[in-house]
Amino acid sequence: MATDATLTTRERNRILELVNEYGPPPTEFQWSEKRQEEWSGAHSATYRVSVLTHRPTGYYCIFGAHTVTVSPGWSRKIQWIGHEDSFGIKEDFCAKWLVLAKAEAETPDLWASIIDEKSLSKAASSTVDNQPFTLSEQNLIATKLDEIKGHILEGQGFAADQAEFVEERFAYFKESSTRMGRKDWLNVLYGGLITVIVGVALAPDVAKSLLRLAATAFQSLWGMAQGYLP
Prior knowledge:
53% of the residues lie in helices and 17% in strands. It has helices at residues 9-22, 87-106, 110-116, 119-124, 135-153, 160-176, 182-199, 204-217, 219-226, and strands spanning 3-4, 29-40, 43-54, 59-63, 67-71, 79-82. Strands 1, 2, 3, 4, 5 and 6 form a six-stranded mixed sheet that branches. Strand 4 (59-63) and strand 5 (67-71) form a beta hairpin. The relative contact order is 0.11. Mean pLDDT is 86; it is low at 224-230.
């Protein structure tokens, strides 16, 4: 038979105060209970314990009888902490977990945006030849790069150093098109756009839009013949 080690109403109310102070919105959490075996000294017992879960991410804090288990943890994804039965220590660990859970919840999944938009990556790995761009193609690239750069900078509210980073990367894209073959340049463009996405932490929908815009802008240079771009 499991010993009841679930939190009291007063303790749960205190956790709500911590959520309001440190975590994502309280409406995103739910309470549940589970059974788990714990050790105290040389003896083990089964307890019924309280679990607080952040529904959108699945991250959780388990308030054990003699332990706290959190995900994410501060040194590993799932972290176990002994607390010597002190609710005050449970509070401290929960507050620390809430800060991490909020940071994780607010971090955009950049991999999702990159994986979903495959046009440029397919073109970069295709059999596009590596002939130099003509002067007219270089002029087209310069114009399209300015349009794409404007799309990134418009309405994003970047800090000065972020805007400068974008300017520098696009200046490099423009300059490198005058001396690189088209296949080499396409690989530089694709890798460089990923660097921009990560470097300024673009939201996934903006990142997808950026990659799609670049694919469409340069399709006349290789995509129509290769069939990789729309």
